[in-house]
Input
Amino acid sequence: MEKLMEQFSLGLFFWQLVLFIGLLLLLKKFAWKPILNAVEKREEGIKDALEAAEAAKKEMQNVTADSEKLLKEARAERDALLKEAREIKESIISEAKEQANAEGDKIIKQAQAAIESEKKAAVADIKAQVANLSLEIAEKVIKEELSNKDKQLKLVDDMLGDIKLN
Amino acid sequence: MFFIAGIVSAQSHEAEEVETGAHDLKTEIKEYIDHHLLDSYDFNLYSYTTDEGEHKYIGFPLPVILWDNGLKVFSSSKLKHGEGVAEVDGNYYTLYHNKIYKTDAEGTIEFEGHHNDETHVEDAFGENLVVEDAHPSNVKPLDFSITKNVVFIALVGLLMFLMFRSVASNYKKSNLPKGVGRVLEPLVVFVRDEIAVPNIGHKYKKYMSYLLTVFFFVWIINLLGLTPLGVNVTNNIAVTFALALITYFITTFSGNKNYWKHIFWMPGVPVPMKIILAPIELLGTFIKPFSLMIRLYANITAGHVVLMSIIGLMFIFKNWIGSPLSFALAFALSLLELLVAALQAYIFTMLSALYFGMAVEEDHH
Output
């Protein structure tokens, strides 16, 4: 320790202090500040760029997700539309069938009604004709009867036979 | 390293040939190492002794600046490497054990100390009569000389300034580092991210200039101390003291309320303990930078002493087994010293940052 104290040089201490502080101040102004600022600025830039890239990636993912969602929606919509169309088609067909059935029934009924009325008319006509024939027969029978009894009878038989044939 | 080896070699040959008798090889090596570790008033690259026994120095003198009832400035060549008396404005100065003393025209050095009972007057050039524990009683003028170490500190400062300014100015042109900046920028970022931020926290910016300057200054000056120029700066206690003092002042002046509370009135301990802890903690604030000073000084000094001793061993062994062995050892050790140069710079910066961190730490109890 004594040797150290003896070795201690005030002059060297003084110059070291002065030169070092001078160097410190000079470097601070001309070197450390610009260097550290530049490094910091660059690091900031890199950080920003990385963040931007990350954001872009996220955006990209969002866009992909959106487009997928859109696609899905479109598909769903298409499916829904198809289904609806099918339903509409089926309902139209069934409705048409029903209508056709109803129409057919109606036509059949009308036809039946017409047939019935025709039948009735025909029956009435036949009745009238039978009545006429009967009247004619009766007239002729009466006329025959009037001339010949046998003949009249025979006529009646013939007439009756004719009627059967008719 | 090889250069130093060369010097020692030259001196050992001289010792062999001259055979002065007073110096044997071992003491000569020891003295050479001691001398190497000291500051010097001249910038000597190497010295040798001619066959006539005359010392020759290759290098250049530096200005000596003294304050002795007025400013005295003269060239160190007047001191003739401690072999002459410099006369300035009617005052006489001479070198004794690498310190400047005021003396008379004959260069008389008077001693005090354990050997005071004998009237011990010794000629300044009679180096062989070194008396242990004897202190010269001559007046030591205030010495602000531009010594070899001061020149070196200034050179390293200039080098750092030019280097880092060019790095800084490059950022004006491009956002990316170029040239030397590619090496220096990661180191700057290292100091910021590994030293400043983890130890100081979000207030680190204020301390970056000091941390960066001290880190690069200590590292570069340590590395240059390993070069053949062999100028050791960080093994001067004055230099490490100046650095530690700056750390101490920055720590003390940035200490917040919480820091001082932890020193004078430690929270969370009983009152008697608080009273006992206060002086210990106060002492601690001085011991911390003091340890910084000693650590850097001792590590670099020890490294140089061991390295040069092993180089010196080569010339003591002088055989085909010992000398190559000590050469290999010296080589390995100088590689280790390269690591130590960076490590000590890192530790000094790291601990400074740690102390700053303690000073600005917020209360979180």
Notes: The longest strand of chain B covers residues 42-49.
